[in-house]
Specification:
five-stranded antiparallel β-sheet; 5 domains; Beta-Lactamase; alpha+beta
């Protein structure tokens, strides 16, 4: 080094100093540089600067030595060295001889980490304040505003710096009567409250916190947030909670009531004036173990729905409730939000329905007639034992199947389905309450007549169709027999009338023949009259038999001489015709 440099003076400088040759080797370094690099001076002298400063084997792209060589004049820069954990300000200048030749580089380094942090802190503070979604201002003990963010200035509509807070916010000449500033300045408390600003009628959240400046003066940081929409939402939620028709309650895990709406009080017969907060919910359980079981299930799943519990109201009455609960975390505390629906009437209805169904099943299972129930789609939902016997199907074979397609002959399917579609659409049927006769089909395919009584049953919003079916095959046979007997009886009546009139005529004829035979002496005439009398007598006997038939009596048999009977019968049959009959009857035929 030249004598013009005074190492003793450079050693006294607080900044790190080093001198490099043209190759970047360190020719001189002071103690301050050794402290910055955290390397002893003997190890610094002779080393290349980038090896110690940047911990690199090669020059970095931003190397100031290279810039000075190229540009030929001094330069400055700031950079962060991670391995040193600090920000460095660097100055580099060329060292030249009298002829302008570069001899080396003069370097000065300064640790500016503290200044950087201070600048960064100020910048970050300003950035945070301006990014806040609310209003910010800083004030002294005399209410005077020292700083404010852009949002606050826009909100008050004027430049607030130097003015008092109550002047710019509330347009007042005196401090607010409810101001709690002393708690901040004297006690160092952070306080917050919610209030409506009379200027715009909106809700705001105000937070005041102490701030001790570097000078020791205590200032007040004020943050104001517009919470009007949140308050409106809170009011809506409060109304929703209070006016909900379902009983709503919020408890902690121990069962202490935190909130309860009016509906819950009504359900539990509690006066609306009574405040349930702080009371134990276990007092309403008929059996405290039910609450333990509910809590166990709730903690396992996080939420439960449709959990039935039996509670006792304040009047001592027991009611069944359907509970839906969910666990929420409020800070360090777990809360249970529950809704309760009184299903006591429903349970009574279910019990009555169960009893009614039991009675129906008892009657249907023992009924001698087929009882068949189908749903809105015509599918069989019930098939009693009598139906199994009549149709030959087991209940499990027909459940869920279309009734018409299963139990009716194929030629009737289209008509039945069309008729049932109308019933589904209108909910009415002209068949209701009227006995109707149809043809039905058994499992084996055989057909038989049935009489059906059809009804529509409405259960809630569901519709069912009930059919009571009777096999009338035997009745049909009896009816046919009755018709046959009625025809037979009509024939008897007819025969009786004819026999009676015929008998009267024959009686008159026989009387006249007898009188005529007394007045005639000619043997040939008497023979004719005798034959006529015999024929008339046979006709009278026939009329007597017809009369006996008409009365339903059985004619009494009598013995006749076959030879004479046949001769008379044949003579009677061919009388008046040109037919000649030769009748040969063997001798010795018994009567």
């Amino acid at each position: 080094m030249k004598n013009s440099f005074v190492p003793e003076i450079l050693d006294l400088l607080p900044d790190g100093v080093m001198v490099l040759d043209g190759e970047g080797r360190i020719l001189y370094a002071n103690e301050a540089l050794s402290s910055i690099l955290k390397v002893p001076l003997p190890r610094i002298i002779g080393a290349r600067c980038y090896e110690l400063l940047h911990r690199s084997k090669t020059r970095p792209p931003f190397c100031m030595h290279m810039r000075v060589n190229i540009e030929g004049h001094p330069c400055m820069d700031e950079f962060y060295e991670a391995h040193l954990g600090c920000w460095l300000w660097a100055y580099a200048a060329p060292v030249k001889d009298e002829r302008g030749n570069l001899l080396g580089i003069f370097h000065i380094f300064r640790d500016v980490t503290a200044e950087k942090k201070h600048l960064l802190g100020n910048h970050l503070f300003v950035k945070i304040v301006e990014t806040l979604p609310g209003f910010f201002y800083l004030s002294d003990h005399d209410y005077r505003i020292l700083a404010a963010n852009r949002r606050f200035k826009e909100w008050v509509g004027e430049e607030p710096i130097g003015k008092r807070c109550y002047e710019v916010i509330y347009k007042q000449k005196e401090p607010c009567s409810w101001c709690r500033q002393e708690e901040v300045f004297r006690e160092g408390k952070t306080i917050q409250w919610e209030a409506v600003n009379p200027r715009d009628g909106r809700w705001y959240l105000a937070i005041n916190s102490p701030f001790d400046s570097p000078t020791g003066e205590r200032l007040k940081i004020s943050l104001i947030f517009d919470i009007h929409e949140r308050k409106l939402l809170e009011e809506k939620l409060r109304r929703l909670f209070e006016d909900n028709p379902a009983g709503l309650v919020v408890t902690d895990l121990e069962g202490r009531i935190l909130m309860a709406n009016r509906a819950l009080k009504r359900l539990l017969r509690v006066s609306e004036e009574v405040d349930l907060r702080g009371q134990e919910v276990q007092q309403f359980y008929r059996d405290p173990r039910e609450r333990e079981n509910l809590l166990k299930a709730l903690l396992e799943k996080g939420e439960i729905s449709g959990y039935e519990v039996l509670l006792r109201d304040r009047s001592g009455g027991e009611r069944t409730f359907l509970v839906s609960s969910r666990v929420f975390r409020q800070g360090p505390r777990l809360e249970i939000w529950s809704s309760l629906q009184d299903i006591t009437p429903l349970k009574k209805m279910e019990l009555a329905l169960a009893e009614s169904e039991a009675r129906f099943r008892t009657l249907a299972e023992n009924a001698p007639l087929a009882v068949i129930l189908m749903d809105e789609e015509g599918r069989i939902t019930y098939f009693n034992p009598a139906a199994e016997k009549i149709f030959g199907y087991q209940e499990k074979e027909v459940l869920g199947k279309d009734l018409h397609l299963t139990l009716a002959p194929p030629e009737y399917h289209e008509a039945y389905l069309r008729s049932f579609a109308r019933v589904k659409k209108t909910g009415k049927s002209r068949l209701v309450g009227r006995p109707l006769e149809f043809k039905a089909r058994r499992k084996d395919g055989s057909r038989f007549p049935v009489e059906v009584y059809f009804s529509i049953i409405q259960v809630g919003k569901k519709r069912f169709y009930l059919g009571i079916v009777q096999d009338i095959s035997e009745r049909k046979l009896l009816e046919e027999e009755r018709v046959r007997l009625e025809k037979h009886r009509a024939l008897e009546l007819l025969a009786g009338g004819v026999a009676h009139d015929f008998n009267n005529l024959l009686t008159s004829l026989l009387g006249n023949l007898e009188l005529l035979s007394r007045t005639v002496e000619d043997p040939r005439v008497l023979e004719v009259l005798s034959r006529c009398e015999k024929v008339a007598q046979r006709a009278k006997n026939l009329a007597r038999d017809l009369l006996t038939f008409s009365r339903g009596d059985i004619p009494q048999p009598k013995e006749v001489i076959i030879k004479d009977f046949l001769k008379e019968l044949v003579s009677f049959l061919v009388h008046g015709s040109s037919v000649r009959v030769h009748l040969e009857i063997p001798e010795g035929i018994p009567p």
